[in-house]
Amino acid sequence: MRRLAAVAWIAIPLAGALVLSGCSSARTNTDELQVVANPQAARPAVSPAVSVKPAGQVLPGGAVSAVAVDEKTSTLVVAVSQPPSLRLYDLNALASAPVNMPLYAPAEKLTATPGRVEIAEPGAGVVQELSLPERKLTETKTGGKPASSVAVGADRLVAMGEAKDIRVLPASGPARTIAGQLYSADDVVDTGSGVVVLDRLRTAVFSVDVAGGKIDEGLRAGDGAANAVADSYGRVLVTDARAGALLAFSAGPLILRQRYPVPGGPYGIAYDAARSLAWVTLTERNEVVGFDVRGGEPVEKFRFPTVRQPDSVGVDEKSGRVIVGSAAGEGTQVIQP
Fold this sequence. Notes:
Strand order of the largest sheet: 1-28-27-26
Mean pLDDT: 89
Shape: globular
Helix content: under 10%
Signal peptide: 1-26
Strand content: over 45%
Keywords: Signal
Low-confidence stretches: 1-29
Protein name: Lipoprotein
Number of helices: 0
CATH class of the domain at 65-263: Mainly Beta
């Protein structure tokens, strides 16, 4: 499979390109990054029935909306849609019953940093912080429909979904808002060399100047940008669910570095920094694939059969175990590569 480097027709700065905001059918088609007249966010492909036994161990449970791993405490956090709750598993004792913690609404996204998991609950207009090992939940009311939350230095950045902006929640003082150019703010990623926001409606990524309070340049991210994660090399990796690809953007400055074909409906993505592996779920095939992303193009290292509708994925960097959540209610899968 050939290498696809950044090409000029994709690297189009967005400043000044957007004429109208919103998503009405009356929009003039002058936006170089707009895919269709009435954009819709990419969704995971509907999975077929499982035909191959899922690899590894499957923990029973309801429909999973998100998974995350806290490396500090070896805790697997699984967000279940009904009833909205978290299930906390000890990764060193998976046979033990999980600790259940109720949520206000289903979690859209879990983002882990050592000893802390950020939880976005758009149906309740709140983000919560789970501190570990204390298992304490602290809520912040944001209003609207927060799609994701991440800790960046002393701040928390909340992608506010259809509100088209990012809420900056400082450790002290009033919150502020960063807006402009977005059709939707669906995920915010700290790459270490810059903050990037994912816009699923526009199927694009944008640099965020947090200190300056503005959205900077933007680039098309395929035909159906779905999910994003930072890697160890100052890049953000994005799954393109419609075109079947894995994209890699540097963040400072924002440049498309790689576009690698990944057939099978790529959707969920997680990154193992200890092994430079990007784990991508393929919902058309009920599979998860591990790519080594250290070189000029991804190299497939692992491929495993999964539970049905593998929309979410996480990784335990201590052991290398991969966690796959079934949005169809067929459990949480733990795989040791």
